[in-house]
Each structure stands twice: as C-alpha cells, then as structure tokens.
Design brief:
The structure is a single chain. The protein is an alpha+beta fold. It has one domain: Thiolase/Chalcone synthase (Peroxisomal Thiolase, Chain A, domain 1). The protein contains 15 helices and 19 strands. It has a nine-stranded mixed beta sheet with strand order 5-4-6-7-1-8-13-12-11, with helices on both faces. It is globular. The structure holds acetyl coenzyme *A. Acetyl coenzyme *A binds next to helix 2, helix 6 and helix 7. It is an enzyme of class 2 (transferase).
Length: about 450
C-alpha cells in the first residue's frame, strides 16, 4: 500500500499550567535557570480531575469528530504511555468505550511501554499493520498520552502533560520513508520507575542527558550509513528541512542539534562550511567519550549550529517549551508545532524525527510531506489542532496551588474509594474528566 503515514492529528493538553519564571522564584532557583538554562517557558499539568485516560479519551473523541471519522472504520488502536495506572488493564481498553458504543469491538492493539518511546513503538506498529498482509482496509489509530511529574527538586520543572492522537492509513500527507530509519537500544539506568506506589521516576539527570546524546549519535551514524547505501550519496543535515527531537526540555534539543552538526563535521560533510570547520577543528582530536564531557565543544558546536537551529529546529519547539515534557507525546507535540508554524510550506519537504525513551530505546526516522487532500491535508491538521488558541486559553496557577495539587495527586495515586471535586469549570467543552474511583479501584469518567 502506498504512502502509508499520518492522515490526521489532534492534540490535547490540560488548561492548567504554571509559568517557569514563577516556579523558579518559588523554588529558590537562580534567576534564569528554568527559562534560559533549561529553555522552558511554561509547564502544563493535570489537576485531580484529569489523568492519562481522560486526556486520551478527549484526544480520540475530538479527532474522530473533527475529521468526521466513523468509529467503525478504525481497525487498530495502539497506545503509547509510561504513566502506569493499572499493571494489567491497558489504557486502550478504556478508549474502547468510544468504539463499543458504535458497535465496533473488532479493534486490534494494546499499550506499548518504555519511557518516552512507547508512542513511537505504537506508531510503528500501526504503520506496519497498514503495510502488512493482515491489514483489513481500516484506519490505524495511535495515542500518546502521559502526565510527567517529578518529585520536588531539580527535575520538577521538566514535567508536562498531554495526549496526542494520530490517524494512520495509506495516501497520507505525512509519509514514512521506512528505509531511512535507525535505532539504538541499550541497557542503562538513567530514568526508571521501580517504585510502584509512586508516580515519580528515579532519575539520574546527568546520566540521562548523556544517554540521550549517545543514542542520538548512534542513530544518526547508522541512518547516514543506511542512506548512503540506498542513495549512493552522503547524508547530512542539509538533506532534511527540519529536525524534530524528543524534548524533555529545550536546552537538550539545542545541544542535540549541535551534536548533529558536530557529527557532520567529523564526517567531513558538505553541510559544514569553512568558518564552521575552523571553529570545530580544535575538537577533532577528542575521543568519542571525551566529546560528551567537553563544555568547550558544547559551546562551540551550539554557536556554529545556531543559524541552522533557527531554520531547521526552532519551528518545532513551541509546544514543548510551553507545555513541558509530555513523555511519549513530546516528540509528536514538537512535530505538531512544526505543522502549526509551517503547514503552508511543508509540501515536498523531508523531516527527520528522533525518539528517545530512557532505559534506553531510541529511533531516528524520516517523514516526507505532501499537502494531501481535505480533510487529510497539512493545513486542515493545523487548523483542527488549533494550537495557538489552546495555548492562549490556559489558566496560570500559582506555585503554591501547583504544590498543593501535586500533594493531593501523590495521595490519590493508586488509591481507591474516592470521588473527585468533579470541578470541570476550567475544562473546554468536550473534555473528559475523572469523577470517581470506587471501592474496587474502578475508574469513572464524564464528558463536559
Ligand atoms: N541562568 C541561566 N542558565 C542557568 C542558570 C541561570 N541562573 N542556572 C543554571 N543554568 C543552566 C546550567 O548552566 C545548565 O545549562 P548547560 O547544561 O547548558 O550548562 C542548565 O541551566 C541546567 O542547570 P543544571 O545545573 O545542569 O540543572 P540540574 O542538574 O539542577 O537539573 C536536569 C537539570 C538534570 C535536566 C533535571 O532537570 C532533570 O533531572 N530532569 C529530568 C531528566 C531528563 O529530562 N532527562 C532528559 C532525557 S530523559 C527523559 O526524557 C526523561
């Protein structure tokens, strides 16, 4: 089947957020640490009436409605998430409520979990299904949903929350270049969730940054090699219009792109001009391991990369800077930012994406875009997602209120026998919310 890829997208993030500048002051961090140091503007979070299930219910029902998709026409539904609410019952089964109502229970797929990578695994499963002999002609649907929350401390400002739904099928405006794909998977303890009665991860922040960059380098090298074998010429950053990264916080995205530039330099690629070569030359003798520790290299490569970053990466950063790390949804929120900012000029362009999940699992892959046909067109996807209005209509809460909500959520995590406030006053019409968890841990949701 030809041109299999993403036909439609919808994004949902909570209407509640906190300004990074305010949080910085409240936490007693030095001024600029979260905003300039981490590169973040604002952080979205769920209050006690929202969770990964309600957000995904909202994203899926909104996608079906806004693109007028008959729920009977969905044949596979895959969820990526690392927010564990139940160790057995998948989030996918909660979403079946939408489809059962319409008489469709014939839907394959369950949840995929490995840190921020689950969404990419779910996406590949759906694309592979449509490309396979088992495809029955119906749509695939991928949902990435996460609430990223950290214990008090340096990682707390790198939280976030969102759900993204993506419809998969042939003749898509966003097509997978399935041959241009490279993975790096390894056994590392950079970020993990061994404490099963807490929502918070155990995280070695510094190690996680290095693991991310090691995976990035490895994927890029393999991707370049595969491309060269396939196309007969060298791949460099000049061969893609945009680079989209999993975005735990923006500074890491800046460092990542600089790393690709450094890779191109060491490969003697044509994307690197004479002045850049001069600036990076002092670092050509660094060993691979040393190159991750050198602050001077980090600075020099970020400086060299800056004009290209502004052109090829900056348009992808809006939602991750405004909402924070959305774990599995983070990469696709960055891609949604690109569609939002550049949908008019993306036809014919190649976009390279890098997905990273701690532990670790990572894949770099390529998409080729075309305008598509209504309702599955780039411009319609941008208008359905309505990113600007969603961002602008959010409510900023105080750090005190945020801390209070985090405390309540710690208490509620894994708990039973409670009703929520059912206060949906801040939620947009059509948003699902949690009303009750009964004495048998069964969860109940309502739609505003
Ligand atoms: N003004 C400007 N910049 C500042 C200031 C200031 N006042 N203070 C600090 N900075 C800079 C630092 O120099 C640093 O930038 P640099 O790396 O370019 O030098 C940046 O702000 C962060 O400061 P650190 O001291 O490195 O921050 P800290 O170690 O306290 O926490 C960390 C950062 C490790 C990322 C933490 O937030 C964390 O653990 N987050 C979760 C882990 C994570 O997201 N990992 C990414 C990959 S894995 C995943 O996706 C979950």
């Amino acid at each position: 089947h030809k041109n299999v890829g993403i036909l439609a997208m919808e994004i949902y993030f909570p209407p509640t957020c906190i300004q990074q500048e305010t949080m910085e002051a409240h936490d007693g961090a030095s001024k600029g640490k979260y905003t300039i140091g981490l590169g973040q503007d604002c952080m979205g979070f769920c209050t006690e009436v929202e969770d990964v299930i309600s957000m995904s219910l909202t994203a899926v029902s909104s996608l079906l409605e806004k693109y007028a998709i008959d729920p009977k026409k969905v044949g596979r539904l895959e969820v990526g998430s690392e927010t564990v609410i139940d160790k057995s019952k998948s989030i996918k089964t909660f979403l079946m409520q939408i489809f059962e109502k319409c008489g469709n229970t014939d839907i394959e797929g369950v949840d995929s979990t490995n840190a921020c990578y689950g969404g990419t695994a779910a996406l590949f499963n759906c694309v592979n299904w449509v490309e396979s002999a088992s495809w029955d002609g119906r749509y695939g649907l991928v949902v990435c949903t996460d609430s990223a929350v950290y214990a008090e401390g340096p990682a707390r400002p790198t939280g976030g929350a969102a759900a993204i739904a993506m419809l998969i099928g042939p003749d898509a405006p966003i097509v997978f270049e399935s041959k241009i794909r490279a993975s790096h998977m390894a056994h590392v303890y950079d970020f993990y969730k061994p404490i099963l009665d807490s929502e918070y991860p155990v995280v070695d922040g510094k190690l996680s940054q290095t693991c991310y960059l090691v995976a990035l380098d490895s994927c890029y090298k393999i991707l370049c090699n595969k491309y060269e074998k396939l196309e007969g010429n060298q791949f460099s950053i000049a061969d893609a219009a945009y680079f989209v990264f999993h975005s735990p916080y923006n500074k890491l995205v800046q460092k990542s792109f600089a790393r690709l530039v450094f890779n191109d330099f060491t490969r003697n690629a044509s994307s690197i001009d004479e002045s850049a070569k001069e600036k990076l030359a002092p670092f050509s003798s660094l060993s691979h391991d040393e190159s991750y520790q050198s602050r001077d290299l980090e600075k020099a490569s970020q400086q060299v990369a800056k004009p290209l970053y502004d052109e090829k990466v900056q348009p992808t950063t809006l939602i991750p800077k405004q909402v924070g790390n959305m774990y599995t949804a983070s990469l696709y929120a960055a891609f949604a930012s690109l569609l939002h900012n550049k949908h008019n000029t993306l036809a014919g362009q190649r976009v390279v994406l890098f997905s990273y999940g701690s532990g670790s699992t990572a894949t770099m892959f390529s998409l080729k875009l075309n305008e598509g046909q209504h309702p599955f067109s780039l411009s319609n996807i941008a208008s359905v997602m309505n990113v600007q209005e969603k961002l602008e209509s959010r409510n900023e809460l105080t750090p005190e209120k945020f801390v209070e909500i985090m405390k309540l959520m710690e208490h509620r995590y894994g708990a039973k026998d409670f009703v929520t406030s059912k206060d949906c006053s801040l939620l947009a019409p059509g948003t699902y919310y949690l009303t009750e968890v009964d004495s048998k841990y069964r969860r109940f949701y309502a739609k505003k």
